[in-house]
Amino acid sequence: MLNSIKIRSSQEGFRRCGEFHSKNFVTWPGERFNEKELELLLAEPKLSVIITQGVNQSPTKENVIEKTSNNSLPESEKSASVDKDSVSSQPPDMAQEILEAARRAIADGNTIKSGAPDIKAMEQILDRNVDAAERDQAWDLIQTEAETKTQDKVEE
Hints:
- The chain is an alpha+beta fold and 156 residues long.
- 37% of the residues lie in helices and 19% in strands.
- The strands form two sheets. It has a four-stranded antiparallel beta sheet, with helices on both faces. The chain has a two-stranded antiparallel ribbon with strand order 2-3.
- The radius of gyration is 15 Å and the shape is globular.
- The two termini are 23 Å apart.
């Protein structure tokens, strides 16, 4: 079961699967798009798509499918493309380490214009190289967690 689908476009108002897509992530209910539409969304190079799977679960590396295309990001945030098979390719402890470094960088105010953690700050925290794809995955999870917490508070 799909919890949610987050989509952003490289082109404001880009239309796909009956919807206009924004340059900012928009969260859709998991049932909004059928299987064929999801395939189209995932294949579209102008879109970044994050799918959270599972029933009432917070987003984690284990339940998130992500597809990011270089074309769908602003020039300042471009990184290596990430596909759904690579999201869970890192050992869980390494993924958690990157996520914690991203949170610490944000807490210390070391961010780029979009609010994402600065890679150089993450590298200093971890004392190793961090690539943009790792940072982007951590940032997307942080944003998804924040949206989930906000939705939970609204429902209470």
